[in-house]
Amino acid sequence: MIVQEQVSLQAYNTFGIPATARYFSTFESIEDLGNILSDSRWKNMPLLILGGGSNILLTKDFNGLVLKNNIKGIEKTGTAGDHVYMKSGAGENWHGFVQHCIQENLAGLENLSLIPGNVGASPMQNIGAYGVEIKDTFHSLTAFHIEERKIMTFNNADCKFGYRESVFKRELKNEFVIVDVTYQLNKTPHFNTSYGAIEQELTQMGVKDLSIQAISQAVINIRSSKLPNPAEIGNAGSFFKNPEIPATQYETLKAKFPNIVAYPLPSGHVKLAAGWLIEQCGWKGFREGDAGVHAKQALVLVNYGRATGSEIYDLSSKVLASVQEKFGVALEREVNII
């Protein structure tokens, strides 16, 4: 294994932040990972596992070992009735994996097209969009325990999925490296077009016969029109979570702000559109130096070129404070702060 020193991480995070790793290496298999972690040099050193770098904000140089997960490979591992099980290496590009499944006419992931990042992060974040979350199709994953150097398998219940949450972001944070993920997909599709502008986009596309291919393309069109391409403007997608509040608090807010955007939840709580809250506070299109709030989607913070991670973080803190002051609602950052 080749370990480099003083490596720029600018190309490894979608914000394009020029932080430096004290040590850096890649791994392409569980064996590679085990070999490098068995080296005593890293025993008491901070460790950062990088996937696609699409959900992190680097606020400083990393004084430890950064390992880039390059485990690849996609395979069908079994079938059961209408279900087909597809396994992907954690280092595969998420959108590429989704498109592979769609080409195989396997349904379940089409609403999650064009989400940036790699497959390994999908269960960690319980990524979701347009009425679908990872937990809906997740079957299992394989993970490497960093301290005990052993492989473990996690099923759906083990992952304790929540809204953009899992056990890997809470009690097991920094204890495991996800090496592959298996999804339970369907031969027969169950279309989900009721969220966002999917139905409107399908109509504009002139779609007569609904298909997973058409839904995927509609999602791609919508996301491309609303969200900045990280290759053009540094960003990590949605920076904030949509907050969930009690129905009583929602009714109080609605009386004061009749146009508030919200969605009732089965739990009886109400999910608010964080982007709407941020926009009402005047942040949409705001720019300070090279740190800004995207002009088309207030949920997205952007790096126009030379912003530091600290500047992006400070801007996010100002956004949180203003939403709290105006609406009495505490937003949470979705992006992992390093």
From TrEMBL:
The active site is at R164, S238 (proton donor), E334. SUPFAM superfamilies: FAD-binding/transporter-associated domain-like, Uridine diphospho-N-Acetylenolpyruvylglucosamine reductase, MurB, C-terminal domain. Residues 16-188 form the FAD-binding PCMH-type domain. One of its GO terms (biological process) is peptidoglycan biosynthetic process. Keywords: Cell cycle, Cell division, Cell shape, Cell wall biogenesis/degradation, Cytoplasm, FAD, Flavoprotein, NADP, Oxidoreductase, Peptidoglycan synthesis. Its EC number is 1.3.1.98. It is found in: Cytoplasm. It catalyses: UDP-N-acetyl-alpha-D-muramate + NADP(+) = UDP-N-acetyl-3-O-(1-carboxyvinyl)-alpha-D-glucosamine + NADPH + H(+). Pfam families: FAD_binding_4 (PF01565), MurB_C (PF02873). GO terms for molecular function: FAD binding; UDP-N-acetylmuramate dehydrogenase activity. Its cofactor is FAD. It is an enzyme of class 1 (oxidoreductase). GO terms for cellular component: cytosol. It comes from the Bacteria. Pathway: Cell wall biogenesis; peptidoglycan biosynthesis. HAMAP family: MurB. Cell wall formation. Belongs to the MurB family. This is UDP-N-acetylenolpyruvoylglucosamine reductase.
